[in-house]
Write a structure and sequence with these properties.
CATH architecture: 3-Layer(aba) Sandwich
Distance between the termini: 6 Å
Structural class: alpha/beta
CATH superfamily: Cytosolic phospholipase A2 catalytic domain
CATH topology: Cytosolic phospholipase A2 catalytic domain
Number of helices: 12
Helix content: 40-55%
CATH class: Alpha Beta
Strand content: 5-15%
């Protein structure tokens, strides 16, 4: 059976995922394939390059840089996370992504974005770190209302979490029969209807199918959680989730809060490690 890794998004909640992934890398736990959404894509790509500690390192280094998540960045560029700095300068110059290690690792890594014209998920395998592939990662994490639509390869894209928040079904259709899902909300969390729909309708009135996806996101998300719960019971998949709400904002810039969430991920991973190794070894 092929093993898959599914990484939910959640902006700075993704540092929980970063903590989990570092523990998995430290223990040489590998997968046959992986998929990340939003922060799961941004931080998860380091799993492919096996760069332990990179995510928390650059978050600590740049969390108070105005280009790395601020309203001043939004007013200047139309993006709360400056597109050029966060998705090109940082990974290529400031704290370089290990392109060679990523290429040597043959594990497929997919990212998910939402097509604003169709309202459907768009998936892209990341094999290199070209400008286009970095733009796909940016699109996966482009938060509606506070990010420009990302135009790539003839597509108009935004946050992958709208169309496919937890892409377990995608991995199953790709033939990954035993999956590990890393959530950034506790198991008993249930998403509610988007309270920003009036603003979203005003901004995206030209994209009715995308608005429909935004309106129904909580329904699909909660159905996916129900599916995950049932499959976890039967041993078909393995879940690592925070035991309680992480209580961290999307633009949190206090280093101690970033470390707190990262450490919670490490603790959760270490607590699950023995059971995870058994699950992984049973395929």
């Amino acid at each position: 059976m092929k093993t898959g890794l599914v990484l939910e998004g959640g902006a700075m909640r993704g540092l929980f995922t970063a903590g989990v992934l570092d523990v998995l890398m430290e223990n040489n736990i590998d997968f046959d394939g992986a998929v990340g959404v939003s922060a799961g894509a941004c931080f998860g790509i380091n799993y492919k390059s096996h760069q332990i500690g990179r995510t928390i390192r650059y978050n600590m280094r740049y969390c108070q840089d105005k280009r790395y998540g601020s309203w001043s960045s939004y007013l200047k560029s139309g993006n709360v996370f400056d597109a050029e700095f966060c998705y090109h300068e940082l990974p290529l110059k400031k704290d370089p992504f290990d392109i060679n290690a990523s290429k040597e690792n043959k594990m497929p890594f997919y990212v998910v974005a939402s097509n604003v014209e169709t309202g459907q998920a768009a998936y892209r395998r990341i094999d290199d770190v070209t400008h286009t592939e970095l733009e796909w990662i940016r699109a996966s994490a482009a938060i509606p209302l506070v990010s420009d639509i990302v135009n790539i390869e003839g597509l108009k894209l935004l946050d992958g979490g709208v169309a496919d928040s937890i892409p377990l079904h995608f991995m199953e259709t790709k033939g990954y029969e035993k999956n590990v899902v890393i959530l950034t909300q506790p198991r008993d969390y249930r998403k509610e209807k988007n309270r920003f729909m009036p603003l979203l309708k005003r901004k995206y009135h030209d994209y009715p199918l995308y608005l429909k996806a935004l309106e129904n996101r909580h329904i699909h998300y909660n159905k996916t959680l129900d599916d995950i719960k049932e499959k976890e019971k039967t041993g078909e998949l393995f879940v690592i989730a925070p035991p309680h709400s992480l209580h961290i904002s999307a633009m949190q810039n206090k280093p101690r809060e970033l470390v707190r969430v990262y450490e919670e991920g490490r603790i959760a991973a270490n607590n699950a490690l023995k059971s995870l190794k058994t699950f992984m070894g049973s395929h």
